[in-house]
Amino acid sequence: MTPHVAAPDPQAGAAVKAADRAHVFHSWSAQGLIDPLAVAGAEGSYFWDYDGNRYLDFTSGLVYTNIGYQHPKVVAAIQEQAGKLATFAPAFAVDVRSEAARLIAERTPGDLDKIFFTNGGAEAVENAVRMARLHTGRHKVLSAFRSYHGATSTAINLTGDPRRWASDTGSAGVVRFWAPFLYRSPFYSENEQQECERALAHLEDTIAFEGPATIAAIILETVPGTAGIMTPPPGYLAGVRAICDKYGIVFVLDEVMAGFGRTGKWFAAEHFDVVPDLMTFAKGVNSGYVPLGGVAINAEIAATFDKRPYPGGLTYSGHPLACAAAVATIQVMEDEKVVEHAAHLGENVLGPGLRELAERHPSVGEVRGLGVFWALELVKNRETREPLVPYNAAGEAAAPMAALGAAAKKNGLWPFINMNRTHAVPACNASEAEVKEGLAALDAALTVADEYTA
């Protein structure tokens, strides 16, 4: 597909913006301080506004348009399904729902062969935790600082970043711990082996003091996403698996962001040769074309509900349009070798390109990632590793990152910015030329960030 930009129509854009400001209440925002861009269209790796400005999307939406915008085969599948059976209640067997579940189960690791469909990632986490609690008869759940699991009640309490603070009831049975992150190690480690060993010892100590018999589950993002794309060190996830087995704790991996090709594997767990008991997914399962998420369930936990009703459900669970989009997306990913392409981009284009930028820009403290899932940790000083902006900075304190973002957009790149990081997360099927275009724009933007270094 060749992205196109329709003739500029600023008047139409102004009307869209006015209607938005009059009626739309935006998430995660102070409503009077935002200025949303009015989007006129999107295709492939690009989107454009009503003034004729085109942007290369290095955010993949919210890290979900894994096959880009408006893929014709997925659009056609949604249209065809709408003409055949636009919706139907979840208690019935529907062909496209069954097919989506089969295709997902074929790609999940181990015996995660039962699929409970939700409308998105947060609901997937909610239900995974509910299943773990009912299966074990225990209540507590352990989750990591530097994590994000969703904005619904349980999911936000499990989250380990500041978005939790305003909604944290302190009574949801959640206990947080430190997961490994060598660059900013809470364990004063000098290498990955030490970080792995010390993080596992810390986790097991936390379990001991909380009471193993009270803990239903440990939930981890396989590779944390919004929190910073910190790839776990070798052996860590296998160590968590062993700890869970030792104490009868359900191991939940959150693959909402990392799954469906994002890391160069169907699921990030494949990089670490580990199989969880429950796995949550969403986003890339159908490139976000219609809301869909779910929980992949192993045989033991599924059997818990063979004779005992599972007390949970959603009106739109396994919605036919969403499932049709998932079937088409998975088929596109197979036919076009999207997962393999994502791995290639990470190994040969995006990863090397970001590391080359780091060599020339003093604002880059660390480069880390897999596939098309990368982060640049930006710092004021490489020696001290002081972040370019303070943790959870806002307003004037966040000015350096705002300047970086403005510079990127001026050069036609829409960046993913969170705290003191910019993430490079293009579509899994972005071309080499598109990735190199993004790297060039990022190069120019980092020159602005360099101005704030000491």
Overview in brief:
This protein is of the alpha/beta class and 454 residues long.
Helices and strands in order, then pairings?
Elements: H1 10-23, E1 39-43, E2 46-49, E3 54-57, H2 60-63, H3 72-84, H4 95-107, E4 114-118, H5 121-136, E5 140-144, H6 153-158, E6 174-177, H7 192-210, E7 215-221, H8 236-247, E8 250-254, E9 278-281, E10 293-297, H9 299-304, H10 320-335, H11 338-360, E11 364-370, E12 373-381, E13 386-387, H12 399-410, E14 413-414, E15 416-418, E16 421-424, H13 432-450
Helix pairs in contact: 3-10, 4-10, 7-8, 11-13, 12-13
Instruction: Quote the average pLDDT.
Output: 96
* Uncertain residue segments: none
H/E element string?
Answer: HEEEHHHEHEHEHEHEEEHHHEEEHEEEH
Radius of gyration: 22 Å
Count of alpha and pi helical runs: 13
Helix-and-strand structural type: alpha/beta
The amount of helix comes to 25-40%
Query: How many angstroms does the end-to-end distance come to?
Result: 44 Å
For the biggest β-sheet, the strand order reads 4-10-9-8-7-5-6
**Residue share in β-strands:** 15-25%
The overall strand count is 16
Major β-sheet profile: 7 strands, mixed
Question: What this model shows, in words?
Answer:
The protein is α/β, with parallel strands linked by helices. It is built from 13 helices and 16 strands. The strands form three sheets. A seven-stranded mixed beta sheet has the order 4-10-9-8-7-5-6, sandwiched between helices. Strands 11, 12, 13, 15 and 16 form a five-stranded antiparallel beta sheet that branches. A hairpin with a 2-residue loop joins strand 15 (416-418) and strand 16 (421-424). Helix 4 (95-107) crosses helix 10 (320-335). The longest helix has 23 residues, at 338-360. It is globular. It starts with 9 loop residues before the first helix and ends with a helix. The model has no long low-confidence stretch (mean pLDDT 96).
